[in-house]
Structures are given as structure tokens and as C-alpha cells.
Amino acid sequence: MIWRTALHYARFGLFLSLASSQFSEEQKEEILELHNLYRSQVYPEAADMLHMVVWAKTNTVGCAAHFCKTVQSMDYTNVMMLVCNYYPPGNVEGHQPYKAGVPCSKCPKEATECIANNCAPFDGTFSPEDFGPDTSPTDTPWTKAAGSVGFTKPSVATLLLAGLTAALLL
What we know:
The chain is of the alpha+beta class. It has helices at about 10-20, 25-40, 45-55, 155-170; strands at about 5, 60-70, 75-85, 115, 120. Helix 1 crosses helix 4. This is Peptidase inhibitor 16.
């Protein structure tokens, strides 16, 4: 089973993230209210989506966007739908998304390389240089957020921004 997520009004959300400083406080408040309204209607909830993105064994994500003038059985018009599939699925109740520690120190045996601080199976497709220098066992500001313990997958914001940018280009 592949987990699915959807963000309603994705194009609007991208615009907000790129240009929010151009809005008045009143406009920002109105946008935030709309965002919260639409987010409350998305399943799974945002926290569940975060778990899917950061789950250590999840190694593939594919996203697609589609503009809908109307959405049947819902009172929505001019909606940009963004749907992402994560594989293998994660978010297993009672389990942690990853083990904290030194990057690449607990890779499974099929992961023969450490690329950009992530365990990766060698398939000859990419070279480590394609991803920049490997900083293991230390973290860089790019990979370590304040209070983190060495987890280095891209942030949710980075992944969503990439997906939303792709949606705008369609």
C-alpha cells in the first residue's frame, strides 16, 4: 500500500511562502484562516504527512499536481491538487521514524554508501559527488537543525516547495 497525501490550494500556499512579506497583517491573518480551514479537511493530518516524509525506510516519493476547475461533491473551485506517494510506507503506530545517531552509522547491509549523510544502496546511477560532500560523522548547518540529533533528510518545507514549484510549472 502506498500512502497518499493531498494539499488543497497548493499554488496559493506556494505563493504565500514565497511572498508573505508583501502582505499586510490583515491579509496574512485572512490567508492563515483559509489555510487552517483547508488543512482541517485534508487526510491524513499534517503531522502524519511529516512522519511519512521523514520515515527512515521511505526512500521514494513521487508527486503529481492537477488543476481542477471544480471538485465534485465539494464546494471548491479552481483547486490545485498535489498528491504524493511515499514508498515504502512508514508512519507505523508505536514505532519511531528513524534512529538518532551519527549519520550512516546504522545503515542496513543493502545500503553500501553514505551519500549526503543518508544510507544509500550503490546502483551506479549517481556518484557521491552528485550530492555534494559527505559530512559524516559531523553535521553541517544545511543538515542539522537546532536541537536535532543528526537526522539529515531534507526538510518537509524543502520537499513541499519542490513539489509545489513543479505544480506551478505544469
